Amino acid sequence: MTGTTSKRPTAPASVTPHATDSAPGPVTDPATESGAGPAGASTAVEKPGPRRLTEPEVDALLGAGRFGVLASLRSSGAPHLSTVAYQWLPGRRELLVSSTADRLKTRQLLADGRVALHVSGPDPWSFAVAEGEAEVLGPSLAAGDAAGREILARTAQAEGTTPAGASRAAALAELAAERRVLFVIRVSRRYGTALDFA
Hints:
Order of helices and strands: HEHEEEEHEEHHE
Keywords: Oxidoreductase
Number of domains: 2
Domain Pyridoxamine 5'-phosphate oxidase N-terminal: 55-156
Region (Disordered): 1-52
Strand content: 25-35%
Pfam families: PNPOx_N
Shape: elongated
Protein name: Pyridoxamine 5'-phosphate oxidase family protein
Largest sheet: 8 strands, antiparallel
CATH topology of the largest domain: Pnp Oxidase, Chain A
CATH superfamily of the largest domain: Electron Transport, Fmn-binding Protein, Chain A
Radius of gyration: 35 Å
Number of helices: 5
CATH class of the largest domain: Mainly Beta
């Protein structure tokens, strides 16, 4: 009786991948990839971080500015932001902001005087913030009334001017016609940051 002869399977020949099957990755230099230079020295450049402004620097930034973003509080407690013109009196630590009686921020500050003013610096990374409590003077309702005289006196003193005669009368009439108010913000805290570039 003749038996069948079984063949032992042979191992397949090694297959070399086709170029399209596995594209080789980029050749990298370990030293470059790890950020190390010759002899393992680091070539990473440290970027400057923000630094806290000193009080004189904050005062200088507030004094150099003319416009800022005023944050008052809605009845819900959410912040309300508006761009305002302001005057900074560093000796008194006060900010003066002129507005009118019908503005939303006027009603908000009459209800809750807590307020903050954000002022941008000379570049997008620097700023100053002044926080405090606002007192609302006015409105002026008649030319030459007490509210108008006080508002004019405070703003003129801040500007270093002394309106008199016809110019004073015209200024008082304008305050009343526009129903002007003045926010006197007594600053209790101020701070800021800057990012210095080499």
